[in-house]
Amino acid sequence: MKRKDTCIYLDYAATTPLDARVFSAMQPYLTIHFGNPGSVHVFGQEALAAIDKSREIIARCLQVEFNEIIFTGSATEANNLAIQGVLEYWMQYKRKSNNIVPRIITTELEHDSVREVCRGLEKKGVEIVYLPLHDNGTVKLEALSEALNDRTILVSVMYANNEIGVIEPVQKVSEIVQRFRNSKSDGIYPLLHTDAVQALQFLDCKPHELGVDLMTLSSHKIYGPKGVGALYAKNQNNNEKNIAPIIYGGGQEWGMRSGTENTSLIVGFAHAFALLEELKQQETIRITELRDYFLKRLQKVFGKSVVLNGSLQNRIPNNLNIAFLNHDATDLIVALDINGVAASYGSACSSRAWKPSPVLNALGLQLKYIRSSIRFSLGRMTKRSDINRTITILKKITSHVRK
């Protein structure tokens, strides 16, 4: 196995390294300012002030209200809070009859932390509608219009996919949802949620411009620490958020997420967020150029034996999902790792054992394509020399690794 410091890391969609500047900002809250933010003494007040400042930074970057940011332990938890929280609130306060079966509309393209929540709710009697997709992975908007009905309480469509990088037309989804919502007497449901975890690094994620009520964010995908995420939850009438908590206790985070706040992680998240705003434009251009160079080199070297999964034009900059025909993805990933290149199948949150990707399956790809597919994702430390070396290694291992 190669020494890790000489390896090429091409799995930035799974996680990113902690930026040294972020780590420096976090350190005092691990040692000196260690107080519980719920305590009234000076130690607690220092911690609370740091959390308030962090919330202000993120709210300002997103151009939303301070109390619309809810810190969570992960993006997975934020997705759970968005979906289960909307359902719980609706059942407690808005359900008019025990015979009404709520409907949630989503897609097969979602991250496991959305898809599996929906699978679980389906078993409890909630109706889940999975929208069909175009060949490039974007949702069929006409199907959304047809799926909306008076029982629909939530639509959840991710902004950018974690496996194939496809960018969904969230603004157009919002227009359809709002038009339907405005035609109803209550003017509240359905709410619109988007998982913007992969989108945040490259796309404009301001909720008001997107027209979403709920948005999930993650720290460790933007060079911040693991173990912290956030849910943007729009203030409705009288500052109601139309979601109920799914974790109960001391009532932290506006009563939406109980548990002692992890001050250092929250500070790190906000610092990473602020740095991202500074670097986003230049990094988007640089990484797009690198990705396109990578794809052209792959096509030149391997010809028609490599196939890009999903649209190139409608894609976040750092993602390439490639099918290496006549090769097994598991064998290729192991061989790449042995030779010093880190890549992946797709979502790092699913089982380590290979199983057919629901995302690639939803695109209608044949199993031979799915079994051959690898995700390469680029980041701040990726250089052109890394791409060239990866191509050289791929040429070497594909001459030995066959199905």
Task: Record the SSE blueprint.
Layout: E1 8-9, H1 20-26, H2 28-31, H3 42-62, E2 69-72, H4 75-94, E3 103-107, H5 112-123, E4 127-131, H6 141-147, E5 152-156, H7 170-182, E6 191-195, H8 207-210, E7 214-218, E8 229-233, H9 263-302, E9 306-308, E10 319-324, H10 329-338, E11 341-342, H11 358-362, H12 367-370, E12 373-377, H13 384-398
Helix pairs in contact: 1-9, 3-9, 4-5, 9-13
Fold and architecture overview:
The chain is α/β, with parallel strands linked by helices. It has 2 domains: about 5-15 and about 280-395, Alpha-Beta Complex (Aspartate Aminotransferase, domain 1), CATH 3.90.1150.10; about 20-275, Aspartate Aminotransferase, domain 2. About 40% of the residues lie in helices and about 15% in strands. A 7-stranded mixed sheet has the order 2-8-7-6-5-3-4, with helices on both faces. The mean pLDDT is about 95.
Q: Low-confidence segments, ≥5 residues, pLDDT <50?
A: none
CATH architecture annotation name of the largest domain = 3-Layer(aba) Sandwich
The largest sheet is:
7 strands, mixed
Order of adjacent strands in the largest pleated sheet? 2-8-7-6-5-3-4
Tell me, rounded to a whole number, the average pLDDT.
Answer: 94
Helix content estimate: 40-55%
Can you count the beta strands?
12
Q: In one word, what is the shape?
A: globular
From N to C, what is the helix and strand string?
EHHHEHEHEHEHEHEEHEEHEHHEH
The DSSP helix count reads 13
> Number of domains in the coordinates?
2
| Termini Cα gap | 23 Å
The CATH homologous superfamily of the largest domain is named: Type I PLP-dependent aspartate aminotransferase-like (Major domain)
Report the CATH topology name of the largest domain.
Answer: Aspartate Aminotransferase, domain 2
- Strand residues, percent: 5-15%
Query: Structural class of the secondary structure composition?
Result: alpha/beta
CATH class designation of the largest domain: Alpha Beta
